[in-house]
Amino acid sequence: MRLEAVTLDAVGTLFAVAEPVGRTYARFAARHGITLAPARAERDFGEALVAAPSLAFPGVGRARLAERERAWWHAVVRRAFGPAAERPSFETCFAELFAHYGRREAWRVFPEVAEALRLLRAQGLKLAVVSNFDGRLPPLLAALGLRPLLDLVLHSTAAAAAKPDPAIFRSASSALGVAPAATVHAGDGLVADVEGARRAGLRAILVDRRDQRPRLPAGVSRITTLSELPALVFGLD
């Protein structure tokens, strides 16, 4: 089937944190009299993310969605802070961190991303971001200068399904007006992106920026930078 659309992961694929999370947490915590070791905060944050439930809230209406998103992140950050979260100033610190990660200065766009997206659009392909993120993502992509290059932004809380659930990929294809088989998804997660996309009937490409070269299922390609994506996608068509 002729390729009509490309969907992309957000964090780790299009952009990354401007500084390690542990360092940011320690820096913000210090403003409120809380001492955190950056390396430990980084480790504990990673463990908290792995242990957290999916960032999706089926059955929750729009009126309560922002509240549930914030509560989800509150639990993750609280676990990352450990005993320091018992300090009275933690709540103010959390509020500042939550706001920080909704602003452009918290992130850096990989240098080749905008040009890669322009080349894909020039070939008439529809482009979408499909991400396990919350309602801060659409305005964040706008602030980072990427939103004009995209036809759709679908985050997991809006889709009521988080990757690797095939439902979020199928929702994106449906919103773009294309069949899953006419869509390829590129992302840095072997399970969330590659396996999830394939289960939904999409083709998949692993964005392996650290050049880790994991074993891939048959038919799955690997790139180390998005500058490789346009030529690879054109070859799939």
Structural summary, described in words:
The protein is α/β, with parallel strands linked by helices. The protein folds into two domains: 5-16 and 106-236, Rossmann fold; 18-105, Orthogonal Bundle (DNA polymerase, domain 1), CATH 1.10.150. It has helices at 21-31, 38-51, 62-81, 90-100, 113-122, 137-143, 156-159, 166-176, 190-199, 229-236; strands spanning 5-8, 15-17, 107-109, 126-131, 152-155, 183-187, 203-207, 221-223. Strands 5-4-1-6-7-8 form a six-stranded parallel β-sheet, with helices on both faces. The radius of gyration is 18 Å and the shape is globular.
Number of helices: 10
Major beta-sheet overview: 6 strands, parallel
Our estimate of the beta-strand percent is: 5-15%
Distance between the termini: 8 Å
Low-confidence stretches: none
CATH topology of the largest domain: Rossmann fold
- Placed side by side, the strands forming the largest sheet appear as 5-4-1-6-7-8
The tally of strands reads: 8
Q: What is the domain tally?
A: 2
Average of the residue pLDDT scores = 96
Radius of gyration: 18 Å
* Alpha-beta content class: alpha/beta
Helix content: 40-55%
